[in-house]
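[[Per-residue structure]]
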Amino acid sequence: MEKYIKRKNKALIKKYILGVTISILIVIIISLVYVLYTNIDISNSSNLSGMKVEVERLSQTIQEVQEKDKTIESVIEEVNESIVGISKLKSAGNTIFLEDGSTKIGLGTGMIVSDNGYILTNEHVSGAKYSSCYITLASGKNYQGNVVWSDSDIDLAIVKINANNLKHVALGNSDNIKVGQSVYAIGNPIGFEFQRTVTSGIISALNRTIILEEEEKSSYMGNLIQTDATINPGNSGGPLINAKGEVIGINSVKITTAEGIGFAIPINTAKPIIQSFITNGKFDEAYLGIFAYDKNVIPYLDNNLKLDDGIYIAQINANSPAARYGLKEKDILLEVDGITLNKMCDLRTYIYSKSPGDIITFEVLRNNRNISMQVMLTKK
């Protein structure tokens, strides 16, 4: 019994000593923190700036680690929540058994670009401005969508549904993409039975121009991203994403006479429009009134015409600002407000960022002479 009491007392003494030691260590740590804190000269802006830089660098490092930990599977899973099905008919039915179902009932894809229901897609999927279509979310909920903006020249449209708190895609920067970069296309090929199908590939080429022939009329689409990621008709309007899950393009068309050749519209073309709807709830499109080609298209039109820089005005609409302020057909637009123009999409994207009533300045090459011209944009 006496031995037991002695062992118990020794155990209590050890616990007591351990507790005292821990308490002393805590006091020392608190004292050191207090000393360091009180020695900071808060009036010294350089100290505060240095602390701010360190905090920002630590935050960036944590974010980079988190991004590296993401697998492509988890990235695609997140993006899929923002992918929608679009149909021109209220009920799609069993479309897999319909011949060319994606064309007959207007099946296609779209992506949610804001939490309050704005959706980006192709115009040939949703229909033209003021028309209606039917939207199916990843959750299975159905909505009627109203086309609030569209442009047939670039085959893009914005659809609005009456919904809030939606998961939306992240938009990347299509100006920074490189040939050989891994990409993933998401869409609804054939019909909703294969909704949110993912295909992978690389960026095969940039700044591609293709001819579209419909009803004996030819048109050109330029500045396209070429990819070998499989794009089927029902994929139209869906996103082409990078490994981070950022949208860099809108899947649009594929070459039916060859395998592994599909095209997407660069996302930067649509960014000013999307941002205007998110910020203002509307997009007042500025109007110039020209139809121009860049040097990639010129060989299709005239083999004798040489164009090293700028874009070539092929047509000017009557009563347009371009006609009113003196621009002429065969003029070559070299710059707009000091920005070099090499592609028609450069000018189009810039005009999308302007408002009716804004004045822009062109540097024009006419009859081998450089002239400067100002044009006031109007509402389209």
Remarks:
- Confidence is low (pLDDT under 50) at residues 1-8, 92-104.
- Residues 1-27 form one domain.
- Residues 188 and 195 are 4 Å apart (CA to CA).
- The longest helix spans residues 2-38.
